[in-house]
Amino acid sequence: MSVLSVFGSNLSLLVRLHGSQTQVAEDLGISRIQLRRYLAGESFPKPNALKNICDYFSVDARVLTDRLTHAQINLMRQGLYEAGESSPLVLAMQEAVAYSCRSEHPYFYNPGELPDGLYARWRGAMSQRDAAQVGLIQVRTLNAARVLKGLQPKQVDLDLQKQTFRDREFRGILLRQRTGYVALYFHNPPSAILSFVFIRPLELGYMPAASGVTFLARDPGDHNCRVRRCLWIKLEPGCREALRIARHPGIVPWDEVPRYILPHIQPGNESF
Questions:
Q1: What's the CA gap between 170 and 217, in Å, rounded?
Q2: For the range 185-190, what are the long-range contacts, defined as Cβ-Cβ under 8 Å and sequence gap of 24 or more?
Q3: Which of 30, 44, 148, 227 would give a disulfide with 272, using CB separation of 3.0 to 4.6 Å?
Q4: Model pLDDT for residues 148-197, shown as the tens digit of each residue
Q5: Which residues of 91-106 are buried (b: 16+ CB within 10 A; e: fewer)?
Q6: Whole-Å CA distances, 40 to 11, 36, 259
């Protein structure tokens, strides 16, 4: 198989894993016609365009010229594929975690109170004191660790409206502690904003749920809120509510928040 054919075949797999051809072409800053030529093996990108493609899909040039294996594809589906050797940042994170977690506490123990799946994530909006924010967050278990990922709604920040799907995505880890769970989110770029969440399981109908507090690490000089009450509600697979939330711009006035959710996220007499 020629290099062009291998490249086109691999790129087709990556595009299908990521989303639509239209979205990928838009994010890469190329026309759909040019993307289709790459996919058909009719054209090979110039060095700067190839670098953009590699960065976008988190792969290296070798992966795009050597046929992808089933193992690589499975890792990509799980968001676990790493191109080449571990970066200095990854190595530094591993070193920091190894130094910090000295005890044998089962941080990733899952008693079933907060099962893997898709959750509706409600909280008070940080940018608007008179509104709430709604979005989706996915919880999953890897080989041992529990992780999560979500998408920052576009309406939350004007700058987000100009960013790609990948720019708005955040990922993190979910840790079990004695009375609940702690989640740590890393927003893109990681050095910009970190979010810290404490939640405790509660009974809310027949679906698993948890309520708590979200802390946003931002400059004290920023006049926006930094602490808000929050509520996670697990959604059934194929639930229409998930599609509705995915299409929602993100900000919800307090008087439009469902009544069974409002008491768990509306500010009370607490002071942070």
A1: 14
A2: 185/148, 185/150, 187/152, 190/89
A3: 227
A4: 998 887 655 545 455 666 677 888 999 998 889 999 988 876 556 788 99
A5: eeeeeeeeeeeeeeee
A6: 9, 6, 52
Query: Could you tell me the pTM of the whole model?
Result: 0.66
Q: Which two tokens stand for residue 28?
A: 């890469």
C-beta neighbour count of 252 within 10 angstroms? 19
List alpha helices for 78-149, DSSP H.
88-100
Closest CA to 215 of 152, 272, 151, 177: 272
Which amino acid type is present at position 156? V
CA angle 123, 235, 245 (to 5 degrees): 55
Both tokens of residue 94? 């591993």
